[in-house]
Amino acid sequence: MAKKKTSVRNRLHAEPGVVNLDGYDTAATTGSAGTKAEAQAELTKSTGPKLAALQERLYAAAAGTGDQRRVLLVLQGMDTSGKGGVIEHVVGQLGPAGVTVTSFKKPTAQELAHHFLWRIRRGLPAAGQVGVFDRSHYEDVLVVRVHGGIDDAEAERRFDEINAFEAGLATEGTTVIKCFLHISFAEQRNRLLARLEDPTKHWKFREGDITERGLWPDYGKAYAQVLARTSTDAAPWYVVPADQKWYRNWAISHLLLETLTDLDPQFPATDFDVPGLVARLQPPH
Ligand code: AMP
Ligand code: MG
Predict the structure, then answer these.
(1) pLDDT tens digits for 166-196?
(2) Does pLDDT of 98 surpass 70?
(3) pTM for the whole structure
(4) How far apart are CA 230 and CA 166, in angstroms?
(5) Integer CA distances (angstroms), 206 to 23, 196, 201, 212, 216, in order
(6) 171 partner at 20 to 30 Å CA-CA among 95, 192, 209, 217?
């Protein structure tokens, strides 16, 4: 992976084995030079159109030349950390035809009857697509772990299995970008309060969110282990300071832009006889 020192990927990358989440400033604006208004304008006026153009080329390359490459953006974070906001504001910049968004909820009876990666495999993006996971297989080493559904040994086994699975995705042409949207305990309270105070946001609120909030330190430990054990060369984790929504969007748009720019997908070459074809396009009488 060609990463410039100053790239957003480089700055937010979680180095395997040295993750201390307490050391992170969740309100940081790492790498972003401008103000909130400037970052928002940049997303819609500059980065967004660039993302859309690159994504169109990725799609065209797959359709035209069988280019197998694709991108998978994995979004993880506590409730209210902004997964939906990233999908709306960042992924929304891309053309809808080239994007698949898959949300992973509490597993259904059918899903539970399969290996935990079964539903994940079914949601993977096809060649030319940018796939987005709103939660992911990581729930099976996070919420499941925090609630005692698996022990330490099983978690370790799953980490190895996930690393092997993601290495396989990379081999098949998938560039995996995993983002942990990191918010503070205080900011989550603000956002849950905002949801409770706005009837149009009640649909996003579940009483269980408060129960999970009570387990914050356990989630912190589980996330730290996930980052330490599964931030690999094939599928790196990025810790995105997410208390400020504008920065979170700015950072993830740049993670995508850097990735797609590196992939540099090309429109397929054609050998059309353009003048000949134009001549055959009969005008209406
Ligand atoms: P939300 O993302 O707010 O719509 O909520 C989805 C819920 O599904 C969250 O509480 C997740 O923790 C839960 N969930 C997702 N995947 C799993 C899983 N594999 N096992 C248990 N709960 C899960
Ligand atoms: Mg929720």
Answers:
(1) 999 999 999 999 999 999 999 999 999 999 9
(2) yes
(3) 0.96
(4) 9
(5) 30, 10, 11, 10, 16
(6) 95
Query: What integer pLDDT is reported at residue 219 of this predicted model?
Result: 97
Q: How far is the CA of 230 from the centre of ligand 2 (A)?
A: 24
Instruction: State the number of CA atoms in the 13 A half-sphere of 56 facing the CB.
Output: 9
pLDDT-based confidence at residue 4 (cuts at 50, 70, 90): low
Distance in angstroms (rounded) separating the CA atoms of residues 37 and 48: 15
Torsion of CA 138, 130, 263, 3, to 10 degrees: -40
Which tokens is 112 given? 């539970």
Q: Which of 143, 146, 203, 204 to mutate to test the pocket of ligand 1 (most atoms within 8 A of CB)?
A: 143
Residue nearest to atom 17 of ligand 1 (CA): 106
Q: Is the CB of 79 under 6 A from ligand 1?
A: yes
**Is residue 255 pLDDT above 70, yes or no?**
yes
Task: State which amino acid sits at residue 159.
Answer: F
With a 6 Å cutoff on the Cβ, whether 135 touches ligand 1 is: yes
Intra-chain end-to-end CA distance of the chain, in Å: 57
Averaged confidence pLDDT in the chain? 96
- How many CA atoms lie less than 13 Å away from 27 in the CB half-sphere? 5
